């Protein structure tokens, strides 16, 4: 059996990873604590980019980033992704550098699917910025909706135990075996049962978006974790 702190710990980790993973990606791209001084590159240097992002003004209207922040984000994105898009294999390679002690491929797959809103097999700068805007600058409801969409693997409007088990296994493969080395092999399934006991309010075997948001808002640890990274750039 898992200790109570272990069960609650990975439940919070599931939410926290949505934010932390995005911040790790930003750190990899050189976007954290970067100087935001003026530059002649402010108009993007688009000549060598295959995918051209929408205009700066339009992206500013559609996100909660300033024009200067968008310029900094784009420089970092273009530096690591010269073509202007990231495919899933590249995305997985990036995440393997964040978690070299584990296997991050499945979690990276799920996160890639959440960023790939057009379902075209690639994440553009726009996709990246829209997701980050929600994760880092969105309301609590915005962030929880984004997390729910990540966990709702088949996008049918509810989270099943099978879907949550896949998510938990991916988290456990990526970091759980090293963060909690005493856990048994059936630990992910126990976390799923605990998750559903807390969030499946009407006990119908699935968690809806309303149940998910209501339960998360009542969890102090989850709420604190989602507010840790406000205005990081």
From TrEMBL:
Residue ranges occupied by any EF-hand domain in the UniProt entry: 103-138, 139-174, 187-222
Superkingdom of the organism of origin: Eukaryota
Keyword Repeat: yes
Gene Ontology MF: a single term: potassium channel activity
Stored SMART domains: EFh
InterPro entries listed in its UniProt record: EF-hand-dom_pair, EF_Hand_1_Ca_BS, EF_hand_dom, Recoverin
Keywords, comma-separated and alphabetical: Calcium, Metal-binding, Repeat
Signal peptide range in chain numbering: none
Entry's Gene Ontology cellular component terms: voltage-gated potassium channel complex
Single GO biological process annotation from the record: regulation of potassium ion transmembrane transport
Keyword Ubl conjugation: no
SUPFAM superfamilies: EF-hand (SSF47473)
PANTHER family (alphabetical): CALCIUM BINDING PROTEINS, KV CHANNEL-INTERACTING PROTEIN 2
Record's protein name: EF-hand domain-containing protein
Organism: Astatotilapia calliptera
């Amino acid at each position: 059996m898992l200790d109570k702190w272990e069960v609650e710990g990975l439940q919070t980790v599931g939410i926290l990873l949505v934010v932390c993973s995005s911040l790790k990606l930003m750190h990899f791209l050189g976007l954290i604590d970067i100087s935001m001084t003026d530059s002649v590159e402010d108009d993007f240097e688009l000549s060598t980019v295959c995918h051209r992002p929408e205009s700066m003004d339009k992206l500013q209207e559609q996100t909660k980033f300033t024009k200067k922040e968008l310029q900094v984000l784009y420089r970092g994105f273009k530096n690591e992704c010269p073509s202007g898009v990231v495919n899933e294999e590249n995305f997985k390679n990036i995440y393997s550098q964040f978690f070299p002690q584990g296997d991050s491929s499945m979690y990276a797959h799920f996160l890639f699917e959440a960023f790939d809103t057009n379902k075209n097999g690639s994440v553009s700068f726009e996709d990246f910025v829209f997701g980050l805007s929600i994760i880092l600058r969105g309301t609590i409801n915005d962030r929880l909706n984004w997390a729910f969409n990540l966990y709702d693997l088949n996008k049918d409007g509810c989270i099943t135990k099978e879907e949550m088990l896949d998510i938990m296994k991916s988290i456990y493969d990526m970091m759980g075996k090293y963060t909690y080395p005493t856990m048994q092999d059936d630990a992910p399934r126990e976390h799923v049962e605990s998750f559903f006991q807390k969030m499946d309010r009407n006990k119908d075997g699935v968690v809806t978006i309303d149940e998910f948001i209501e339960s998360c808002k009542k969890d102090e640890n989850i709420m604190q974790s989602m507010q840790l990274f406000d205005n990081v750039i």
